[in-house]
Amino acid sequence: MAERGVGAAAQRTPHIIVIGNEKGGSGKSTTAMHLIAGLLQRKFRVGSIDLDAGQATLTRYMENRQRTNADQGLDLRLSEHRRLAPSDKDSAAAAAAEDQERLQACVAELSQSVQFIAIDTPGSDIALSRHAHSLADTLVTPLNDSYVDLDLLAAIDPESHRVQHPSRYAEMVWEQKKTRALRGGRAIDWIVMRNRVGSLSSRNNAAVDRSLNELAGRIGFRIAPGFTERVIFRELFLQGLTLLDLRAPGVKQRLSTSHIAARQEVRQLLHAIGLPNPPETSQYVPKSGN
């Protein structure tokens, strides 16, 4: 991927947002789709890549969105979407090399026409996902608000609830940060998105909050507000809609009080991540650096 630079001669390079977490059920694809919708609403050109060959939830989300446009005569904005499956080569080294080459080629191809690329990763540790993490300008890790999910990031002492040491996923992110630094890239902005699923006691919330804030200082991430578990997210998937689409012309979904509250959560997340305002011209020039 071309390096960013300063001045008119510098080649445009899209900002890459990776949604990553090695645990299933954390809401990666829902988060990815809402980030994509937020950027599309701001009139950015967006590419999306689905690396989760098994679930392919983001791909199905996009297909549902295209079908809704066709069936209902809508004009919902779409990303330029690609789906990549991991290599099937027998040699692990050869497979990893092919995965890296194919992902680089996909990013390079999308870079000719988009300003942002969102990459949805699988809930497992594979070479394709690790390489995607090393490309991230922004890494968003959805995390359910419990010690079961926090274990993904760190081992926690059961008595004191103090952080003992980083866990596997945090160590993997650290390795990809070093890989990126060796390529001359700027630091990854890592954001842990704290979802609240179900009804948790305030005591548990407070304990998780202390542990998460301690860990943030130790391994270097920001904490952003996530989503409360709501049926609406699952309902909208079937139509390829997001909460940000519910006021779009022609959309038949009724906007309830619950939807308004959930949509506010999405907007809070977009604000916490720091997505930019729309460009004043059609030429988007990203921040200098990498």
Characterization of the model:
The protein has a single domain (15-273), classed as Rossmann fold (3-Layer(aba) Sandwich). The chain is built from nine helices and nine strands. The protein has helices at residues 28-41, 57-72, 92-110, 127-135, 147-150, 168-182, 202-219, 231-237, 257-273, and strands at residues 15-19, 46-50, 80-83, 116-120, 138-144, 154-156, 163-166, 189-196, 222-228. The protein has a seven-stranded parallel beta sheet with strand order 3-2-4-1-5-8-9, sandwiched between helices. A two-stranded antiparallel sheet has the order 6-7. α2 links the parallel β2 (46-50) and β3. α3 packs parallel to α4. The longest helix has 19 residues, at 92-110.
What is the secondary structure topology, with strand pairs?
Layout: E1 15-19, H1 28-41, E2 46-50, H2 57-72, E3 80-83, H3 92-110, E4 116-120, H4 127-135, E5 138-144, H5 147-150, E6 154-156, E7 163-166, H6 168-182, E8 189-196, H7 202-219, E9 222-228, H8 231-237, H9 257-273
Helix pairs in contact: 1-2, 3-4, 4-6
**Envelope shape:** globular
Determine the CATH topology: Rossmann fold
**Number of distinct helices:** 9
Just give the CATH class. Alpha Beta
